[in-house]
Amino acid sequence: MANLRELRDRIKSVNSTKKITKAQELIATSRITKAQARVEASQPYATEIHNVMERLASASSLDHPMLREREGANRAAILVVSSDRGMAGGYNYNVFKKAAELQKLLEESGYEVVRYVTGNKGVGYYKFRGENVAGSWTGFSQDPTWKTTHDVRRHLLDGFNATSEGTTKWREGLNSEEGQGVQGFDQVHVVYTEFESMLTQTPRAFQLLPIEPVIETVEIEKGPDILTDTGSPEADVEFEPDADTLLSALLPQYVSRSLFAMFLEASASESASRRNAMKSATDNASALVKDLSRIANQARQAQITQEITEIVGGAGALAESAESD
After folding, report:
1. Are 91 and 53 in contact, with CB atoms under 8 Å apart?
2. What is d(CA 208, CA 187) in angstroms, rounded to the nearest whole number?
3. Each residue's pLDDT tens digit in the chain (325 positions)?
4. Half-sphere exposure of 284 toward its Cβ, with a 13 Å CA cutoff?
5. Contact 206, 192 (CB under 8 A)
6. In the β-sheet with 75-81, what is the strand arrangement from edge to edge?
7. b/e for 238-250, b at 16 or more Cβ within 10 A?
8. 153 vs 65: CA distance, rounded Å
9. Which keywords does this chain's UniProt record carry (predicted)?
10. CB of 152 within 8 A of CB of 117?
11. Which end of the chain has less Cβ packing within 10 Å, N or C?
12. Rounded CA gap, 121 and 140, in Å?
């Protein structure tokens, strides 16, 4: 059994660690609330632009490069959204695992994969393993803004528009010589973590470009005569300029906003994952302190018992010595 001094030093050390993990838990909890508020604040714009895109799509020919697979496509970009800081449990590992699965699937389909990363943890992960990263952006995983994410959003859009046969201009964060053209790609995939609840965050692989149009079939129920319609009426909208022109102008904004929404989701997921990890660490520290305290008490009791036994034994020996005299 360890001596009493060692046990007390260890209890002190664990309590110090517990204070740190508890503070991190409280900070992460407050950031979750802010991140959720930002996601909710972005919903009105997201809903409106989605409704506008649906109406434009129904009135247009859908003949746009962002809406169709390219013939002979052979180069795909993967954006891996990780965190800048650690202490978030399996948050980053799950994202890296999902990205590896997606990369394997694309390579088996004949695509050349080019990887982009956000977050210091992702940069360090791929650098340690000697895997190539075409571009990286850091410093905003916990608090993404429209400005800080501009370069990564703009590059993915420009790279897709350039196609694998063309090049796009250099931007901050790309791992190539400044001023040199950067080869484009034919697909864009994003691997990020979706926030479902405080306890559940799920890694997702999402194809950002080209957008896969969803065609819905609507059944119209007619009444007993041709003038009676049981369905709800819809407004007949005329677009100026024409729907195809508006669709071409709004699609980049729609895609850019969708990517920004993923950054917001990942931010909330990171905070929730860190809170769960720190709460688990705090609970484990409390349990460890309890166990160590029990062991320390047992050691202290054994020490006291031994001291009493020695005193009683010594007193008995003195009494026997006095009687013999």
Report:
1. no
2. 8
3. 557 888 889 999 999 999 999 999 999 988 888 888 888 888 888 888 888 887 877 777 777 888 888 888 999 999 999 999 989 999 999 999 999 999 999 999 999 999 999 999 999 999 999 999 999 999 999 999 999 999 999 999 999 999 999 999 999 999 988 878 899 999 999 999 999 888 899 999 999 999 876 655 556 565 565 555 555 555 566 777 788 888 888 889 999 999 999 999 999 999 999 999 999 999 999 999 999 888 888 888 887 888 888 888 877 777 777 666 5
4. 8
5. yes
6. 135-137, 112-118, 75-81, 187-195, 201-209
7. eeeeebbebbbee
8. 17
9. ATP synthesis, Cell membrane, CF(1), Hydrogen ion transport, Hydrolase, Ion transport, Membrane, Transport
10. no
11. C
12. 12
Strand locations in the chain, DSSP E?
75-81, 112-118, 135-137, 167-168, 182-183, 187-195, 201-209
How far, in Å, CA of 170 to CA of 151, rounded? 10
Which helix or strand (DSSP H or E) is residue 252 part of?
helix 243-324
The b/e string for 105-130 (b: 16+ C-beta within 10 A; e otherwise) is ebeeeebebbbbbbbbbbbebbeeee
Output the CA–CA distances (angstroms, integers) from residue 250 to 39, 64, 81, 211, 257, in the order listed.
21, 12, 25, 13, 11
Q: Are the beta carbons of 267 and 143 closer than 8 angstroms?
A: yes
- Which pairs with CB-CB distance under 8 Å and at least 24 residues apart come from 8-16? 8/296, 10/292, 11/289, 11/292, 11/293, 11/296, 14/285, 14/288, 14/289, 14/292, 15/285, 15/289
DSSP 8-state class, residue 179: T
For residues 133 and 116, give the distance between their C-alpha atoms in angstroms, rounded to a whole number: 6
* Burial class of 312 by CB neighbour count within 10 A (0 to 12, 13 to 18, 19+): exposed
First to last CA, the chain: 42
Residue 172 vs residues 85, 135, 151, 169, 243: alpha-carbon distances, Å: 21, 9, 7, 10, 35
Q: How many whole angstroms separate alpha carbon 123 and alpha carbon 17? A: 28
